[in-house]
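Field guide to reading this record: the first block holds the primary sequence, the second block holds the structure written as discrete tokens, and the final block holds curator observations. Each block starts with its own label. This record concerns Two-component system response regulator, catalogued under organism Roseateles aquae.

BLOCK 1 — SEQUENCE
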Amino acid sequence: MHASLPTSTILIVDDTPQNLTVLGELLKPYYHVRAANSGERTLRAAVTEPRPDLILLDVMMPDMDGHEVLRRLRSDARTREIPVIFVTAMVATEDEEHGLELGAVDYITKPFNPSIVLARVRTQLELKQARDRLAAQNDWLEREVERRMHENRLIQDLSVRALACLAEARDNETGQHIVRTQIYVELLAKALLTHERFQKALAGPKLGMIVKAAPLHDIGKVGIPDAILLKPGKLSAEEFEIMKTHTTIGSEAIGRAMAQALTGADPALAEVADSAFAFLQVAQDIALGHQEKWDGSGYPAGSAGDAIPVAARLMALADVFDALMSRRVYKPPMTLDEATAIILEGRGKHFDPAVVDAFVAQREQFAEIAARFADPA
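BLOCK 2 — STRUCTURE
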């Protein structure tokens, strides 16, 4: 007894009405059956609802034979996955091999043996349903993996932002400083993406890591005493030396986090750990090097030129521009022209010349960001 798959639709194709009648009467008790009597009608029927789950395709037809119909079905993304059983009176082995090479899943020979037809149809429909279930599961898994990755990225971003806000909460600056400088860094990085001196440092996921790590540039300020950090006036030489240690405090804190994470780390998570450590290394570069200067007169190490990590060079200009354009208890905000003049004065001294050039090319965008995310009056 043949157990049907009642929701399945079968398209039978033959230019001989008698053959369509025989196959139709055999299959209709078990399946929804549609029919076509030419190649062109087959191609139209294959993309018309209800879409066929299986096609029984006659090989020998005028105008367009079954082989050409199958080629076209396989070349169309909409019909590529529909299984096709060739129906033929030909018995030559080479004909069968040719059809299978084109992508047919089986052969049924004329005259029809009802039991064989029903058995092969059911087998191919069960295989298709299994493939469809597997494809649906794979789609679900891909969506779930993407959802989890998005969730993890969001958690990472929020964690970074929370740490950055913790540092800013102890300073005279506001959370908008984090937002502005992060966008400035992104503008500079994208402008320099194809620059020969910056391509390697910004390739692949590196640019995104730099942008995400930018808010952690002043994380080391949590270790600076309030009397110095919150002092409204100019710092003394001794106080400034202490203030300068925020770079090493931040770098060392990130370094300790990486070292502790390595202790007892699960080897199975090595790939994830590598990605996380790459991000933290970028954050460490920014925290340690964003006060370095192109001519070597910065701190803490007095590094110069390309010895300063790219991420730190981008952050250096973004941080200074934001400070110049922002109101502080000890100074009013500068105009865009005033801030630009100081940045240009620092070209080749404080800042990498290429970074300054990238800033100049996008000066109006910088001004727009400064206005859009301005601190409350």
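BLOCK 3 — OBSERVATIONS
The chain has two domains: 9-138, 170-372.
The longest helix spans residues 114-169.
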